Fold these 2 entries.
Entry 1:
Amino acid sequence: MTRQVTRQLLPADDMARLIALRRKLHMAPDLSGQETATAAQLLEFLHLTKPARVVPGLGGTGLALVYDSGRAGPRVMFRAELDALPIVEQTALDHASRVTGAAHLCGHDGHMAILAGLGLWIARNPPGSGQVVLLFQPAEETGAGARAVLADPQFDALRPDWAFALHNMPGLGLGHVAVAPGPASCASVGLRVRLTGREAHAAQPETGRSPAPVLAAIMDLLAPYMTPGPMGPHFGLATLCHMSLGQPAFGIAPASAEAWITLRGYDDAVLADLEARLCAGIAAAATGVRCDITRHDAFHASVNDPAAAEIVQAVQARLDLPTARFTFPMRPSEDFGAFSQVTRMALVFLGAGEAQPALHDPAYDFPDPLIAPGIALFAGITEQLLGV
Ligand SMILES: [Zn+2]
Ligand SMILES: [Zn+2]
């Protein structure tokens, strides 16, 4: 029999501990792939919840905690991200980052506090069947972490039947929920184009091989995709992030150039098509110079399973959490998309307030009032799938 989840999930002193944990994590951010101290802090916090199994070093610096009912049933995974961003925080908060050049400006500190809160809740309300896995995943911001977790042999024993993650979303009403079946976040990839020709005297450029015309051709190829159109099944976007050519000297015709381009698409297929067409165009334009294109920071689209999205919607309705107006998928990519490849999953957006600075903005700080509804959503999903 499923018990009704209320918003007062945890005693006030637990909520105070979670807010203190969130702020402590905020003060001591770790960059992608270096989250050892953050993972250790979470393990220390959750030690008393007595997980059946602790899996440290997952996918490098990740951490998984397994709570086992001892009875057969599905394995349900909830994910939070461990990493912060290489940006200087510009807030005057008491709990502002103490690490120069690193800050939790995507709210992953809040997502971790929500998952820690779920751990406290599970300790008081053990699942009636199956297992719950709390996954603290490394390196989300670079797109490397989810894939590293999935490739880790330790993941085989953690492979979930269902996986859920939430991301706070500035611009949506505080505590409003957006979840839908199908694509939840776009696919993306970074292309680094390296062009190598031959230097020459600036007075005799025809004796060298300048990559400048190829850069110009790249600009032309990108132009139709540089202004985003409306979101839809054919949505594609190219962002020219960086370009360089030669060296700052008036006497030299250049030999080398680079272009860094981020491509984005409605889903993996749209992105693959855009990438193939662009790479073919660049290769065709690069006559007389060497052209090397490498792929970086590749993110799958996050595609919500219809049944998983329906479960979240049912819990949202039970909790009476308002629905946000949201156009799916969101343009930024999320490496939780890698889990779409292996399990039924849903990525849920939780409004962080209309006036909240955007994600990755130097003035952003995760709103603590989201911790309670975040825990309530995940606890409700646990009840729905595993009973208590
Ligand atoms: Zn981010
Ligand atoms: Zn994020």
Entry 2:
Amino acid sequence: MKKTYKIFRFDPEKDKKGRYDTFDVETAKGDTVLDALIEIKAHHDGTLAFRKSCRHGICGSCAMQINGQNMLACETQVEFLKGNTITVDPLPGFKPIRDLAVDMDPFYEKLREILPYLIQADPSPTDKERIQDPVDFKKIEVAISCILCGSCTSSCPSFWADKGYLGPAALVKSYRYEFDTRDSGFHDRLQRLDNKHGLWRCHTIMNCNDACPKHIFPTEGISHLKRKVVEEKY
Ligand code: SF4
Ligand code: FES
């Protein structure tokens, strides 16, 4: 199956702004957009830059925009994309650093901001596991599957308008800890969530729900967090 790939290119040492290059690539049934990019890099243009690692939807590094939608390139099979031309862009809202690779540092800074780890009133036992009730685990199970790909935050108009906004990915991570029955970090995280660049910047636009390759529905977690903050404060 031969398709044309229209790929965003940007070399910070030569270009003031981005441009597109096109490549005609033959792929087989079951091949993904990531396979096509690897083929382009191997046989058409070795300078093409993009991120990948696991090739199995686990590491989150191959998130990019494919035909206008944020997706994981390694999970997107070419045969299911409509049209003969496939347009590939870097994640929107993030600063491109080269071709399809974007600067993820601000994304990780936001994540660090919400203290993404268990904060426990009592130290964990060192000689056994801290058991969690399966019913309690169910509440956070979906959020735990976040692979930090950035697709949700990148798709969010509130984030495009306010680069100080924590963004859905950091808020999903907050939800994951705030609703973990072993965590007692609410007051440590409260100020970080309860401000104009935090929870309340989410206007329930819900682009993040469509963008998430793990079907996490960040908006739902954010709504639970908002309710928790209101209930605990008032
Ligand atoms: S919530 Fe979904 S889209 Fe957002 S970072 Fe996690 S896996 Fe990616
Ligand atoms: S390469 Fe790891 S998620 Fe795509």
